[in-house]
Amino acid sequence: MVASVGASENSGAGPGSGPVAGGGRSVPPARRPGGRTARIRAQVLRAVREQLVERGYDGLTVDAVAERAGVHRTTVYRRWRDVGGLLADVLDAAGDDGWRPPDTGTLEGDLMAVNAEVEAALAAEPVTAALIAASFRSPEAAAALRRFWEDRYARCAVVVERAVERGECPGGTCARRVLIAATAPVYQQMVLIRGGTDPGLGRQVARGVALAAAAGAFPTGTGEGGHGVPHAVLP
Hints:
235 residues, mainly alpha
């Protein structure tokens, strides 16, 4: 699950937000306009990311972003309205990529590979932590961040689906629960306590979660929106 939520500048497609996490697929992104409009969007979103990392949420203003992007402030106000709109679009743009989870042939290997990508993305993109922090200050950013995670969990559900098909874990295993259990310690280490990378942690957690999933520790429960892998996919 690529963790960077701020690096994409692909303006040719819209948010890749799937409405149901753990469902194995996401809604195809809507097309966005290209040409000058796309260039302006890329300039503005890049300025938002840079300003947020350098100045923090309190230093992020529409005027500052417009000046940094070399765009007239009325253009920014007209399209994004306010800081919340800017942050939401940065987060939505991160879903415009074509990322898919790795396929190593085992659940443990897939979870290890996902954690390695999470660590690499978090280490390379300081804006990710800044955007997560900003989501606690902006309702628009919070909603966009949720859309981003929903999309990522939807894309990653195939990791658990393949594991069920291989007989590594029982049908009815909740993909989202498996993925959260496997990746949460990495986010704890790198985002919450700012402890830096610990590749051993990602491998260790992946191994433990794979063993727990095999033992049926992650059944689909009520109120999860059908995020489990159905028994019907079993051979």
